[in-house]
């Protein structure tokens, strides 16, 4: 099993802004992909779509201001069954975000790509929360020939 | 053991530019940290310094246009003994860069941070090779309270 791990922090005095950006359709559409639909409660499925395809994620756990957990229920074969965890912690003037995409069966080249791409989306999330403007797909940063 | 994996591609018709940016002091100073000193041949040690500290890396292997391998010989405890691999492959109009920072003993929070920070430096490398201008320390992208 291989994992993708990241850490960012937003300059915000409470974790509410990050939590909202992870748990509402408008928030998610503001940093990951504009084409986000579905419902965001526990047990609901959120559909994230991109020009080349997309992912559907089931919400497993929600702890306001602290934790968001998703399971991938549809998408590329390598993604299905993996889980995504967001752990939030307020530290002074910063909201620290620990990100985990766990359970990749093999460290395939697509995982290398997703690791870098997640980092760029995390910086989009940081920008959204700090400035009101993120860089969601299709306005995301192009990192390679795979977009 | 835990690993950091990333993939980017530069829009370049040969891998020479990326290879040069990884194997010369001027190249390395153009995307990672301006405070880069030392020698860059096999067996040499390159010193990378940042405002809060730095790393010294020994060059293990060099295959022009294909591979660069380093071992961390000095720096934060979690880094010492880990290895960094750069695998380059030309694919049409793109040079694909597979990056591996292998052998972290534990997936500590500092590793989460370094994973995201590496992604941002890889985008700095891409920018340097494509446009001539990167974002090396101290002009690097601030991703968190840990810089």
TrEMBL record, chains A, B:
Ranges of residues in domain Activator of Hsp90 ATPase homologue 1/2-like C-terminal: 13-130
SUPFAM superfamilies noted in UniProt: Bet v1-like
Superkingdom in the source lineage: Bacteria
Family named by the database record: Belongs to the AHA1 family.
Protein name (database record): Activator of Hsp90 ATPase-like protein
Organism the protein comes from: Kribbella voronezhensis
């Amino acid at each position: 099993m291989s994992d993708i791990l990241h850490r960012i922090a937003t300059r915000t005095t409470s974790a509410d802004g990050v939590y909202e950006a992870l748990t509402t359709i408008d928030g998610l559409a503001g940093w990951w992909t504009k084409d986000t639909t579905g419902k965001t409660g526990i047990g609901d499925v959120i559909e994230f779509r991109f020009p080349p395809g997309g992912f559907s994620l089931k919400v497993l756990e929600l702890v306001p201001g602290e934790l968001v957990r998703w399971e991938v229920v549809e998408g590329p074969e390598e993604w299905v069954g993996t889980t995504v965890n967001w752990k939030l912690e307020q530290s002074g003037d910063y909201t620290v975000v620990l990100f985990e995409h766990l359970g990749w069966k093999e460290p395939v080249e697509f995982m290398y790509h997703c690791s870098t791409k997640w980092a760029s989306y995390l910086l989009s999330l940081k920008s959204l929360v700090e400035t009101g403007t993120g860089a969601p797909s299709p306005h995301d940063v192009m990192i390679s020939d795979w977009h």
